[in-house]
């Protein structure tokens, strides 16, 4: 089959491309490299069945490089996704969640392809229902610092559903919960790249708030497998894809210190505004519809992520001028 993946140089997008290529498919990857990394493309470019197009999917349709040939599935993974990007890249995020999604939906329509939207647990905001089921409408501050991403992704879901209902496009929506693994960006600001880098460099682990807020971390290979299954099912309404094992951020810091054997201590910093207090997916629907559940336990996933960052940091230190 032939796939288009937007956000191909991003953390999850690059893993998705790698999985599709390994399964024997052709992939056209698109990225404007605003947060994606060339490094992530290196592993893909070696494959003759991978083609990369550097472009912004928000460009006016007439300015977009056309995708030639047939396409079976369009995966839309393009969007800055780290909370540290929500304010400085607010307009880019709102643009990619509106014009970018619209252009990508048009591509799927033109090709008669299935369209798969990478949505997010941020649609639930700071949830008042726990764990979060797909039927929950969320608790989002529409004008807060997270709103470009939260509301952008909610608008994107509305766009996708409207295209399905009005134009009959075959659409799928996966709501991604916190995901981790190799190829996350160093200095990305998210909790795991931060904690792992801090632990490996023996500097204090920066826990925001008192560390009692929770998240549920899914290893990237599991998440990608969920999305591949999503593209092959016929469920149009959103499905949560995440790991339902929950941990406090304080406990996570302790685990990273233990797994790295670090001498780091913990340092408490102010909790960012509107930081969700609890987050855990209810994955009953994914189990039933996709016959999917995460397989990688946290210790295994964290060890491989730590090894990745260890290599990246070692290379970076070796490359520094003396
Ligand atoms: N966090 C933290 N220290 C950091 C980075 C993040 O304590 O150095 C916290 C953050 O406040 C949030 C959780 O870890 O409660 C997960 O943050 P992340 O940015 O990874 O993703 P989010 O789930 O907020 O989208």
Q: Topology of this protein?
A:
Layout: E1 2-6, H1 11-22, E2 26-31, H2 38-45, E3 50-54, E4 73-76, H3 90-111, E5 114-120, H4 147-167, E6 171-176, E7 179-180, H5 191-200, E8 205-208, E9 214-216, E10 218-219, H6 220-232, E11 239-241, E12 246-248, H7 249-260, E13 266-269, H8 284-290, H9 298-319
Parallel strand pairs: 1-2, 1-4, 2-3, 4-5, 5-6, 6-11, 7-10, 8-13
Antiparallel strand pairs: 9-12
Helix pairs in contact: 1-2, 1-6, 3-4, 5-7, 5-9
Uridine-5'-diphosphate binds next to helix 5 and strand 8.
Task: Summarize the model shown.
This protein has 322 residues and is α/β, with parallel strands linked by helices.
Per CATH, which architecture of the largest domain?
A: 3-Layer(aba) Sandwich
Number of strands: 13
CATH topology of the largest domain: Rossmann fold
Ligands bound to this protein structure: uridine-5'-diphosphate
Total of helices? 9
Structural class: alpha/beta
Indicate how many domains the architecture comprises. 2
Overall residue-averaged pLDDT value: 97
The helix content, as a percent range, equals 25-40%
| Assigned CATH superfamily of the largest domain | NAD(P)-binding Rossmann-like Domain
The backbone outline, from C-alpha atoms, is globular
Largest sheet: 7 strands, parallel
Share of residues in strands:
15-25%
- Low confidence ranges: none
Strand order of the largest sheet: 3-2-1-4-5-6-11
Q: What is the CATH class name of the largest domain?
A: Alpha Beta
Order of helices and strands: EHEHEEHEHEEHEEEHEEHEHH
Distance between the termini: 49 Å
What does this protein structure show overall?
By secondary structure, the protein is α/β, with parallel strands linked by helices. It folds into two domains: 2-180 and 217-241, Rossmann fold (3-Layer(aba) Sandwich); 191-214 and 245-319, UDP-galactose 4-epimerase, domain 1. It contains nine helices and 13 strands. It has helices at residues 11-22, 38-45, 90-111, 147-167, 191-200, 220-232, 249-260, 284-290, 298-319; strands at 2-6, 26-31, 50-54, 73-76, 114-120, 171-176, 179-180, 205-208, 214-216, 218-219, 239-241, 246-248, 266-269. The strands form four sheets. A seven-stranded parallel β-sheet has the order 3-2-1-4-5-6-11, sandwiched between helices. Strands 7-10 form a two-stranded parallel sheet. Helix 4 (147-167) links the parallel strand 5 and strand 6. Helix 1 (11-22) crosses helix 6 and helix 3 packs parallel to helix 4 (147-167). It is globular and about 55 Å long. The mean pLDDT is 97. The protein binds uridine-5'-diphosphate. Uridine-5'-diphosphate is lined by residues 83, 178, 190-191, 194, 206-208, 213, 215, 249, 271-272, 275.
């Amino acid at each position: 089959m032939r796939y288009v993946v937007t956000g191909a140089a991003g953390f999850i997008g690059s893993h998705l491309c790698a999985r599709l290529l390994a399964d024997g498919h052709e992939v056209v990857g698109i990225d404007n490299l605003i947060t994606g990394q060339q490094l992530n493309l290196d592993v893909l470019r070696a494959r003759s069945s991978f083609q990369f197009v550097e472009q912004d999917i928000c460009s006016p349709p007439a300015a977009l490089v056309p995708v030639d040939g047939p396409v079976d599935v369009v995966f839309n993974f393009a969007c800055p996704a780290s909370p540290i990007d929500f304010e400085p890249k607010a307009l880019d995020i709102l643009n990619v969640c509106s014009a970018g999604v619209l252009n990508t939906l048009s591509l799927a329509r033109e090709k008669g392809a299935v369209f798969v939207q990478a949505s997010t647990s941020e649609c639930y905001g700071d949830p008042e229902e726990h764990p979060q089921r797909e039927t929950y409408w969320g608790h989002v501050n529409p004008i807060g610092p997270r709103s470009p991403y939260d509301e952008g992704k909610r608008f994107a879901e509305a766009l996708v559903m409207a295209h399905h209902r009005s134009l009959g496009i075959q659409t799928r929506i996966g709501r991604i919960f916190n995901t981790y693994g190799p190829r996350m960006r160093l200095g990305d600001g998210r909790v795991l790249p931060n904690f792992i880098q801090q632990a490996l460099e023996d500097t204090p682990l920066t826990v925001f708030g008192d560390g009692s807020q929770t998240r549920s971390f899914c290893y990237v290979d599991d998440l990608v497998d969920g999305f591949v299954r999503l593209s092959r099912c016929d469920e149009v309404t959103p499905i949560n894809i995440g790991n339902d094992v929950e941990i406090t951020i304080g406990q996570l810091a302790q685990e990273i210190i233990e797994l790295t054997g670090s001498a780091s201590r913990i340092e408490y910093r102010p909790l960012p505004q509107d930081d969700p207090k609890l987050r855990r997916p209810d994955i009953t629907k994914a189990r039933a519809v996709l016959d999917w559940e995460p397989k990688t336990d946290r210790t295994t996933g964290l060890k491989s992520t730590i090894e990745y960052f260890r290599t990246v940091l070692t290379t970076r230190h070796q490359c520094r001028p003396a």
